[in-house]
């Protein structure tokens, strides 16, 4: 039986077409599988990268929270310390002020009365001149205002000693009742009620605080 050549060509064509289709399908499936594998790998890598980012962000957030808590505690402690120091300063200032007011009210009036008493001032000057006798010379200094009383009295009283270790002068800038200056020295000691009050206040202040508050307080 003789086979038609045309029929053989058609059969070979369909056979080749079938092979080509199978090969194409195989390539396609392999490509899909490889694509899915690559996609899964990329997805896993992305998920791992996201997890690491989240962990790092969480760790950083925890560190920032701990740092903020530490700084808040430090600021709180510093504020408490500052408040305690301020309270101590205020208490000490109040104690000092109370002691000063008490000293002022106690010493102020008697000293002011004494330094307005001419007789008291003359006795003080005589005592100072006498205590200085035989040592270095001194200068008695009186203010311009009111010089006709104490200045003239001193000039008359000590006229025999003038130029012999004793000088009596007037100083226009002097505001106290009088002052003394060792001859040849650059300083002078002023005598008036405020100066004596400050002197006695320094002596009495510690004992006054002890009497008022029971324990010594820093000045």
Sum up the structure in keywords:
9% strand, 4 helices, single chain, alpha+beta, rod-shaped, 4-stranded mixed beta sheet, 219 residues
**Average pLDDT number:** 76
Helix/strand order, N-terminal first: HHEHEEEH
Q: Mind summarizing the main beta sheet? A: 4 strands, mixed
| Relative strand content | 5-15%
Proportion in helices: over 70%
Which residues form runs of ≥5 with pLDDT under 50?
none
Number of strands: 4
Chart the SSEs and their pairings:
Blueprint: H1 5-115, H2 118-132, E1 138-143, H3 150-157, E2 166-171, E3 178-182, E4 189-191, H4 193-213
Parallel strand pairs: 1-2
Antiparallel strand pairs: 1-3, 3-4
Helix pairs in contact: 1-4
Describe this structure as you would to a colleague:
By secondary structure, the chain is of the alpha+beta class. The chain has helices spanning 5-115, 118-132, 150-157, 193-213; strands spanning 138-143, 166-171, 178-182, 189-191. Strands 2-1-3-4 form a 4-stranded mixed β-sheet. Helix 1 crosses helix 4. The radius of gyration is 54 Å and the shape is rod-shaped. The mean pLDDT is 76.
Brief overview:
With 219 residues, the chain is of the alpha+beta class. Helices cover 71% and strands 9% of the residues.
């Amino acid at each position: 039986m003789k086979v038609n050549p045309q029929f053989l060509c058609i059969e070979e064509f369909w056979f080749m077409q079938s092979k080509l289709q199978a090969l194409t399908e195989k390539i396609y499936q392999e490509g899909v599988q490889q694509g899915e594998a690559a996609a899964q790998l990329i997805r896993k890598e992305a998920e791992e990268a996201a997890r690491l980012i989240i962990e790092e962000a969480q760790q950083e957030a925890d560190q920032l929270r701990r740092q903020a808590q530490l700084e808040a505690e430090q600021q709180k402690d510093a504020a408490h310390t500052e408040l305690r120091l301020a309270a101590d300063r205020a208490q000490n200032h109040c104690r000092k002020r109370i002691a000063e007011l008490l000293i002022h009210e106690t010493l102020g009036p008697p000293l002011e009365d004494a330094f307005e008493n001419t007789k008291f001032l003359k006795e003080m000057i005589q005592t100072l001149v006498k205590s200085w006798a035989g040592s270095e010379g001194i200068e008695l200094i009186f203010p311009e205002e009111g010089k006709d009383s104490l200045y003239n009295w001193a000039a008359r009283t000590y006229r025999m000693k003038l130029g012999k270790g004793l000088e009596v002068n007037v100083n226009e800038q002097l505001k106290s009742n009088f002052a003394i200056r060792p001859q040849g020295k650059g300083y002078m000691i002023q005598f008036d009620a405020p100066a004596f009050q400050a002197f006695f206040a320094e002596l009495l202040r510690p004992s006054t605080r002890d009497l008022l508050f029971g324990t010594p307080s820093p000045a």
